[in-house]
Amino acid sequence: MKKIVSLAALAAVGLFVFVPVWGAPKTDVYIGITSVGDKHLPAIGMPEFKAGADSKDAANLVRDVLRSDLLFARYFDVKEDGPDFNSKKLSQTLTGWAKAKASYLLAGDIVYEDPYYTIKIYVYDLSTRTPVFSKAFKGTQNSLRRLSHIASDQITSALTGKRGIADTKIAFSNNATKHKEIYMVDYDGENLQKLTSDRSIALLPRWSKDGRIFYTTYKYRNPDIFAIDLKAGKIAPVVIRGGLSLIGGVSPDGKALVFTSSGGSNPSIYIYNLETHTKQRITNKTSVDGSPSYSPDGKYITFVSNRAGNPQIYVMELATGQTRALTKNFNWSDTPQWSPTGEWIVFSGREEPYHPMDIFLVDLTGTQLRRLTTDAGSNEDPTWSPDGRFIAFTTTRNGQRQLYLMDMDGSAPHLLADLPGDSFTPHWSF
Asked: Where in the chain do CATH 3.40.50.10070 domains reside?
């Protein structure tokens, strides 16, 4: 039997676990995200924000970011044709927006007192004519975009009871410097930041819920695992000089890592305890096992193995070691990631030899398989938004390898950020 290429060889050239890929969205499956412009979406009226001459630009920025965030979330439509907000004639203002078919009114005003802006946001329920959100935010010019994202998420929570994702980020690897380094960017493609200067191969960033980013790097001429502490501004080694160490994921409680290691005769999956600094081997087959990630409750992992021939997607219960295959007929499978809701696993795969690899969903019974991309370059490394409604991935549909986002049913694919170089292995923050 022909043996698949080793993980170490692939990691050395910057690929993840098993092989290259291909694909683009075209699906007849609708899983549940409402389109913008749907007549059933409640509309939020957004008049211009009040601001003095010294804060007009800031007011426009905050309003634009809020508007974009709310439209992206797909919980609301946005209306802008209506009366100006006038707190002294509140009743008339609310009536005017109700006549404009808005369900809510979002108003704001911004005051500048060097070096701080004070942003006041108000939301009114037009059916009851009562305030449902009122909050002030304070920050410098550099924090306006972040404050807008925070406000957007709080408004979404107040009106829908669901979490927003505007204040989330995506970490990824990029080779614009001729080395692969770790970067992060806001969910909307803004605020790009370079996090490492390893001048080597750095890839597979994986967020923990406390905001740290674990990643694999060849900084010491060996594929080791390091951690980026964003709050402290420090980078430190975690698992080093133990052969191949490809990070897979961080446990939901932040106490352990699951990763691929070459400690045995074949690459296998290990768990590293961040408190005791010990590692435990959890697969021990004469196969190549890799690309592990945790379930949302931390009781299971999903991973890829060629134990039955070609690489397929598996699930293991950590308490018992009981393992079952979710796919059986793929020519190649890679990079499975568990949805935050626990219902689906997204992965890249191809069904026939030499065909492009696409992005798929499979449910936990293995009976529902849904293709999300087809016929648009190489689509790889899918990662879920923390609300489970969107998927980020890399694609070569425009030539270079770029970061894209799509709805979880494969619709509405769009470029996340037009960046130099090629981008790899994105991971969405919690």
From this structure: 43-73+76-160
200's tokens: 């080597």
Q: Is CATH 2.120.10.30 correct for 7-33+168-428?
A: yes
d(CA 32, CA 38): 13
Q: Which residue in 364, 366, 367, 371 sits closest to 410, CA to CA? A: 371
Please give the Cα distance from 70 to 76 (Å, whole number).
6
Q: How far apart (Å, rounded) are the C-alpha atoms in residues 355 and 353? A: 5
Q: Show the tokens assigned to 43.
A: 């509309």
For the chain (430 residues), the mean pLDDT of every run of 10, in chain order, is 34 32 30 49 97 97 98 96 95 97 97 97 97 98 98 98 97 98 98 98 98 97 97 96 92 97 85 96 92 97 96 98 96 97 96 90 97 93 98 96 97 95 98
Distance of CA 110 to the CA centre of its chain: 31
CB 229 within 8 A of CB 249: no
Domain with CATH 2.120.10.30 in the chain: 7-33+168-428
Q: How far apart are CA 33 and CA 72, in angstroms?
A: 11
Spell 174-183 as b/e; 16+ CB within 10 A means b: bbeeebbbbb
Closest CA to 391 of 364, 371, 367, 421: 371
Give Cα 283 to chain centroid, integer Å. Answer: 28
DSSP string, 262-277: -SSSS-EEEEEETTTT
User: Among all chains, which residue has been given the structure tokens 């798929």?
Assistant: 360
Strand order in the sheet with 256-261: 245-250, 256-261, 268-273, 278-281
